[in-house]
């Protein structure tokens, strides 16, 4: 039986696969002859990154950064903390931030400022999901997979209290609202 906390499915596995393939193809064209470094924002974006990287057919590297603003809550605390920084400098590199979701935009705002100060050659964002109705700050997001409604989402990396990251689809958290 399906966990009662798993609500309506928002994005099916086949649609995730198709979108990841298309994004990978587009990034491969846009970053041909560049120095692509993907910065994956732990933990949620790991699942998206792992699939996306395998859909990219140009040389690329990855580094990881862990930030947290949600903890076990379903509302952003508004205070973003670095839990793990990048291993290597990014000056002069073509940095693409990989996010699972842009919700309030506060995490991304912090990352753009923090990474921008390290003088990369370019700094862009690829987010699988966006929740425009909840946005507190607007940020340029070059690649976006899907718009989802104003509901707390779980699955394909997204957690509620660290659970549900392993779902192969994106769903609404049933108890929300
Ligand atoms: O646009 P915002 O309102 O800032 O929300 C988006 C951020 O929140 C989530 O991370 P979280 O802090 O839950 O960490 P996690 O990826 O480890 O779950 C998500 O993965 C994004 O990084
Ligand atoms: O809808 C969401 N689900 C899981 N994590 C999140 N972090 C920001 N928004 C969300
Ligand atoms: Mg989370």
From TrEMBL:
GO cellular component terms given for this protein: cytosol
Single annotated GO MF: nucleotide binding
Subcellular compartments: Cytoplasm
EC identifiers of the protein: 2.4.2.8
CDD domains: PRTases_typeI
Keyword Transmembrane helix recorded: no
Start and end residues of each Phosphoribosyltransferase domain: 16-159
UniProt keyword list: Cytoplasm, Glycosyltransferase, Magnesium, Metal-binding, Nucleotide-binding, Purine salvage, Transferase
Cofactor requirements of the protein: Mg(2+)
Superkingdom: Bacteria
InterPro entries, A to Z: HGPRT (IPR050408), Hxn_phspho_trans (IPR005904), PRTase-like (IPR029057), PRTase_dom (IPR000836)
Magnesium among keywords: yes
Pfam families reported in the protein's UniProt record: Pribosyltran
GO biological process, alphabetically ordered: GMP salvage; guanine salvage; hypoxanthine metabolic process; IMP salvage; purine ribonucleoside salvage
UniProt catalytic activity: IMP + diphosphate = hypoxanthine + 5-phospho-alpha-D-ribose 1-diphosphate; GMP + diphosphate = guanine + 5-phospho-alpha-D-ribose 1-diphosphate
First-tier enzyme category under EC: transferase
Pathway(s) annotated for this protein in UniProt: Purine metabolism; IMP biosynthesis via salvage pathway; IMP from hypoxanthine: step 1/1; Purine metabolism; GMP biosynthesis via salvage pathway; GMP from guanine: step 1/1
Family assignment from sequence similarity: Belongs to the purine/pyrimidine phosphoribosyltransferase family.
The name this protein goes by in its record: Hypoxanthine phosphoribosyltransferase
Provenance organism: Baekduia soli
